[in-house]
TrEMBL record:
Ranges in a coiled coil: 39-107
Pfam families to which the protein is assigned, alphabetical: SMC_ScpA
InterPro entries on file: ScpA
Domain of life: Bacteria
PANTHER family noted in UniProt: SEGREGATION AND CONDENSATION PROTEIN A (PTHR33969:SF2)
Organism the protein comes from: Swingsia samuiensis
Keywords linked to the UniProt accession: Coiled coil
Protein name, entry field: Segregation and condensation protein A
Coiled coil is among the record's keywords: yes
Length: 251
């Protein structure tokens, strides 16, 4: 059975709820609508559903009947002589009917949402019977919870003072260390030609896997060598920006 009662009348063609909406907004002339045709088409749909042995939803058929009755009542208000407050009563009746239609639409959408949800046994399936098993404790331990807590507290009391975390202090290659190494190299070895800045670093720093230590060593060595260059002992060369820095002793 269809969710919508489609009407084909002299002054209107479409679903019944649309006719009510148009009547509320005064966009259709109810005087031109044949209530007799409306009732006949309603009965035709109901009888057809019964004849074809389809499921006849009584609540839906009842809603259609109520809508048709409201339309007949509204049209009667137009045909009968006007009384005091008749127009206001008709407008109130239309608003009540419109609110009922909105409620029915919300119920229909909620029912559709529930129908589209995964259904147990159709879309999803319950887990089968769980496997039965017997747990066997082969440890031979018999532990009492209160005794375990007592032993733990006793061990904590025997541990004495709480341990205090002391972070490891890292020793970085300072500018002073680099300056002393430079003076020692220039005083002992005869260095000729341009050398890389890395040649001034100790071997253990060049092989250090910690990038922070290597960066600190390079920075300290660069500052120390700049001090030596300021004193006229060293000179530097860099071909372009961010290129490798080279040095040599001033003869």
């Amino acid at each position: 059975m269809s969710e919508v009662l489609h009407l084909t009348l002299e002054g209107f063609e479409g679903p019944l709820d649309l006719l009510l909406d148009l009547a509320r907004k005064q966009k259709v002339d109810l005087a031109q609508i044949s209530i007799l045709q409306l009732v006949e088409q309603y009965l035709t749909v109901v009888e057809k559903a019964r004849a074809e042995a389809r499921s006849l939803r009584l609540e839906l058929a009842a809603d259609w009947l109520v809508m048709a009755a409201w339309l007949a009542w509204l049209k009667s208000r137009l045909l009968l002589p006007a009384e005091n407050n008749a127009q206001e009563e008709a407008e109130d009746a239309v608003e009540q009917l419109q609110e009922r239609l909105f409620e029915l639409e919300r119920m229909r959408l909620a029912a559709q949402w529930l129908q589209e949800r995964p259904r147990l046994g159709v879309d999803v399936f319950r887990r089968g019977q769980g496997e039965e098993y017997i747990e066997i404790d082969r440890s031979g331990l018999r532990v009492d919870l209160s005794a375990l807590i007592t032993a733990y507290l006793a061990a904590k009391r025997r541990s004495g003072k709480k341990r205090v975390y002391t972070p490891k202090v890292r020793q970085y290659w300072s500018v002073q260390d680099a300056l002393e190494r430079l003076k020692r190299l220039l005083g002992v070895e005869k260095v000729s030609g341009w050398q890389t800045l890395g040649s001034l670093l100790p071997d253990h720093l060049l092989l250090d896997e910690n990038p922070l230590d290597r960066s600190a060593a390079f920075a300290g060595t660069l500052l120390a060598s700049l001090e030596m260059a300021k004193s006229g002992v060293l000179e530097f060369q860099q071909e372009e920006a961010f290129a490798e820095i080279r040095w040599r002793a001033v003869s």
